[in-house]
Amino acid sequence: MNRNNKIKQKSAGRSIERVNNIINKEVNIIADKVAKNILFKQYVTITIGAFLMSVALVIYFNELGIVVGGVTGIAVIFNNTLGVPMWVVNTLVNIPLFVLGYKTFEKMTFIKTVYATAMLSLFLAFIPNINLRTDSFPVNVVIGAFFMGMGLGLILSSDASSGGVDMISTMISNKIKYVTIPEIMLIIDGIIITCAISFFGIVKGIYAVIALIIETRISDNIIKGFKRSKLIYIISSSHQELADYIVNTLKRGVSYINIVGGYTHGERKMIMCVVSGRELVKIKQMIGRIDSKSLCFISDVNEAFGEGFTKLT
């Protein structure tokens, strides 16, 4: 009897192990498909980003003599002064940087950065210089900065970079620990823009700085997301009524945090929730109607994902 029980237990154990192996294989297959899908989307995004950057450079910045730093800025200087094609400069400058800095980035990030640089050079070589510019120089600068910021933001949001200054800054930062990568990038871009002023003049140098600010702002918004959310904390004697409104009317979740007043030493509940900017307006209006003495703290949330927000892909 005991022997039969042992045989049955071993058989059941083997069956469970087989089922677990099958489940693990299926999970791995699904995870692999998801990873490949994400990688494919990233390469498509990088390609679009490189195209937009090329449009900004070929149609706007190169024709206007606007240098916003980076290797592409060096390419604009060489093209305008010596007639060297921008794609040639971008390729020749980046090749030795990739050789020196291939250990600086993670393997996949490095591969995507090489791809982004290659696509940028390819588009710089083949995009025709179609005159899409307006009669207004400042408007053209803004349009160029918009395309440049969009393209750069798409590339950076895909865990890649356009090479050049990014790689130099990372390598220097690894050697000089007390200087950050953004600080080094600012110094290098500043040197390039200063050099450009000697060729194109101080007025275009000022426009270049304005373009760089616009470009940085747009790329930053793309990386962090245009649909930024708001984190709100509410301390109110009518916390239950406010929570019911948020949950039932706005269909947002709330959390309670137990707090103790430093003056009264009384225990109270504080509401915490993440909402959109439009929903925040409605909550503030409701607070004014229910309990105008409520204490609120509001801060920006660069990114919110999950139920009710952006889905993770």
What key attributes describe this structure?
313 residues, alpha+beta, Alpha-Beta Plaits, 2 domains, 4-stranded antiparallel beta sheet, 10 helices, 4 strands, 67% helix, globular
Description:
There is one protein chain. By secondary structure, this protein is of the alpha+beta class. It has two domains: 37-224, no CATH class; 229-301, Alpha-Beta Plaits, CATH 3.30.70. Helices cover 67% and strands 9% of the residues. The protein is built from ten helices and four strands. It has helices at 2-64, 70-82, 86-101, 107-126, 137-157, 165-175, 181-200, 202-224, 239-248, 277-290, and strands spanning 229-235, 255-260, 267-275, 295-301. The protein has a four-stranded antiparallel sheet. A hairpin with a 6-residue loop joins strand 2 (255-260) and strand 3 (267-275). It starts with a helix and ends in a 12-residue tail after the last strand. The mean pLDDT is 82.
Element layout with pairings:
Blueprint (H helix, E strand, L loop, with lengths): L1 H63 L5 H13 L3 H16 L5 H20 L10 H21 L7 H11 L5 H20 L1 H23 L4 E7 L3 H10 L6 E6 L6 E9 L1 H14 L4 E7 L12
Antiparallel strand pairs: 1-3, 1-4, 2-3
Helix pairs in contact: 1-2, 1-4, 1-5, 2-3, 2-7, 3-4, 5-8, 6-7, 7-8, 9-10
